[in-house]
Specification:
Shape: elongated
Number of helices: 8
Number of strands: 0
Radius of gyration: 24 Å
Structural class: mainly alpha
Amino acid sequence: MTERNTVLRSLHDVGLAAWFGGSLMGAVGLNGAARAQGGTEQTRRRIESAGWAMWTPVNAVAIAAHLVGSVGLLEVNAARVARQKGVGSSTLAKTVVTGAAMAVTAYSRVLGKKVEKASPEAWQGDAVQGGADSQDSQILRDSQDLQDSQDLQDSQDAKEAQAARRQLTVLQWAVPALTGGLLVLNALHGEQQRPWEQVRGMLQRSMGR
């Protein structure tokens, strides 16, 4: 119980701190700055995409460090997880939340790639969407079938890109929420490591309480 695991704890804590802090800063600072200073919708999306793309490899290293530290600490504390009441359930909760945070992070990057690859017209669609059914547009569609087909495809691509952007906005807030939950569970684990908590938890487990 008194063995030190400084390296594992450092990997676990620093990795999680970077994961949480980077995702929160991106959702608040990067996206907010892009909205405030980006000018056109196309420019705002380009700034956001470039910022998140630059953060991705650093975030991947942070997640990897956190996972290495987590697995290492789990092995070190395997006996306590099995014998101390409450530690097993909090460890399971932490594992589930970690998996969810990883899944949301990965899917956010998939959506981010889709937004990055969207044509400039995808972000102009919001400004011209209302004119799609005007009389002039109807005349143009009647007289230029080939152009109509291309416009229809562009419109569909624009809708998909805009839908991906809406999903991405939600998920970019979900990541700091989930990793913040991991920080709370980490604090709980720290409390459970207090000497009296260990003794009480093991007594409760041995007595079947």
